[in-house]
Design brief:
single chain, 207 residues, mainly alpha, Ferritin, DUF305 domain-containing protein, DUF305_CopM-like, Ferritin-like
């Protein structure tokens, strides 16, 4: 279809779809080939697989779809926290892991409560899928890192930085289309809290 100014919008749509498909394929390849890089990386990849699979359950309602995706995102954080608590040795990282687990479990409950009472409105799933794109792009880049020499504490810190950055990007994208005040507040809380934790994790890494 040709829009005003003679621009072929169908070509643009095809290019966007192709780019997104390529990005998804790259990330999926990372999931398949990099599981051996450590338990934390494996947990992150499991989390990403779950969030990729949720694409088939997208409703087009931005608030409902955000709640679905953020629930799985937080579950990934809980799994990584459990790994750190079980096998980590650094007290600072173990304290952060315990805090992460408690905070994310509480948020998961709030998100599930929202989904149970919020009937999703029919919408354009292509719009809500925009929340996933930054995360998929970051995942495609992350798998190139060599984490083979890191211990559990170092793995936890590095993976949580990536995890939080992905969550922040997803939340920022959601806020552009958010409808309900409850989910707007949840998204902003996620950004504020995870930004603070990223700073703490990076400060620990530089010690």
């Amino acid at each position: 279809m040709v829009a005003c100014g003679g621009q072929d919008t169908s070509t643009n749509d095809t290019t966007t779809a192709t780019t997104e498909e390529t990005t998804n394929t790259d990330a999926e390849t990372a999931v398949d080939t990099d599981m051996a890089k450590g338990d934390m990386m494996g947990i992150m990849h499991q989390n990403m697989e779950e969030m990729q699979n949720i694409r088939t359950q997208m409703t087009g309602d931005p608030d409902y779809d955000f709640a679905q995706m953020m629930t799985h995102h937080h579950k990934g954080a809980v799994r990584m926290a459990d790994e750190e608590l079980a096998n980590g040795t650094d007290m600072k990282m173990k304290e952060m892991a315990q805090k992460t687990k408690e905070t994310n479990q509480a948020d998961i409950q709030k998100l599930q409560d929202f989904m149970s009472k919020h009937k999703p409105a029919t919408g354009d799933t292509a719009t809500t899928m925009k929340m996933v794109r930054p995360m998929m792009s970051m995942m495609g880049q992350m798998h190139q890192q060599d984490m083979s020499g890191m211990n559990t504490d170092q793995n936890f810190a590095q993976m949580m930085v990536h995890h939080h950055q992905m969550g922040n990007e997803m939340s920022k994208e959601f806020l552009k289309m958010a409808k309900t005040e409850e989910m707007k507040q949840m998204a902003q809380k996620t950004i504020d809290q995870q930004t603070k934790e990223i700073k703490e994790l990076k400060a620990w890494q530089q010690q």
